[in-house]
What we know:
- The chain contains 16 helices and no strands.
Amino acid sequence: MSSSPSPTARGSRLALLVVGLCWLAVLFDGLDMFIYGSVLPHLLETKTFGLTPDQAGDLGSYATFGMLVGALTAGTVADRIGRRKLMIGCVTLFSLASGICAVSGSVAVFGLGRTLAGVGLGGLLPTAISMVSDYAPRGRGAIVIGLLMTAHHAGGILSAYVAKWLVEPVGWRAAFWVCVAPLLFAPVLVKLLPESLSFLRAKGRDEEAAALAARYDVELPATSGRKTAADRWDALLGLFRGGEWVQTLLYWLASFGGLLLVYGVATWLPTLMRTEGYELTNALTFVVVFNLGGIVGMLVAGRAADRFGAPRISAIWFALTAAGVYLLSVHMSMGVTTLVVFLTGVFLNSAQTMIYATVSIRSTPDNRATAVGWTSGMGRFGAVFGPWLGGQLLAAGNGEWGFTAFALAGLSSMVFIGIAALRTPRTGTPNDTEQKLVAAH
């Protein structure tokens, strides 16, 4: 006679379902984010829409500007409608926006599609991290968030294969039609994804939250007093009181350079590798290798930071990233270049995440969320500037300087986070906010 599964085993399987749904949503997020960079060499070579390099850089910035808007508004919207509905809405938005890109007949319409996609992309990631934080198995929150972030890079790998398989035989529009496919995933989220426990508690729906927590065998989030507008303003001013303004600006500048580097390389890597003389197929292979490195980096950076300290690891990681990006401007053998691209991917994305870890650890508990949020927000302006900068360099016939410019951004972040690390830190302990650091990315 077979025995029925225990409540704990059943709850673990259900929690795994929630984490799996969020992982797939972030996979589609990464696919949509990286697809533009993967098809860009083809768009420029075929002069689609009469596209010039500077226009291509502008289009790349439209998506990152949309991400800035999405990230800044996600919290407010989620507080009103719930994290579940926001996730469904974000997946729907960036899927439909890719459809606009697929049918576009002009740069303006294509740009509109990329901007709207960016809004959905920017809102999805922090919301998904909030969801898995609520439903991760007991004692596994940090590990689950790290695994969730691998989905973004897995999406980047998928984008390269989509471009390889479809762009040449079918055309670039087919790649964006693939990015519409996640629209079919939205009904799955509607049917299977529960509401965020944190949202239910914040809305006073305690009985519903308790029932869900029991069903999924997860911890019930503690209630917390919601800050007023005056409280949030005071928390922001606290970042500049008593000489803290120097530390705050150093963090902001480091984040600006870090995200300039992250999104500049993500947008222009295949195109810049083409300017270095590599075939298009090899250039797209580098996208795969780069994102494989990103997955490895996300899994090892946290352990290294725990042992040696987040500020030190962030500075070292940025130095190694800058060296790797600069080496990409030198035409080397395929094997050596592949290794350099992989190692650059390992260090680049996790270097930025370690900035958030540094800010969290060195902030007071009552100001930690504000400090991390604003460091991320200021960095987003670098995310907008990076794709634009690459386009301007190519338009001026200085494409060979692209990797050098991005390497300098990495060195600047190394200097800023290094100086900040040498200053006397505020008293802080990396509590539960540390699990949500990657949401700022």
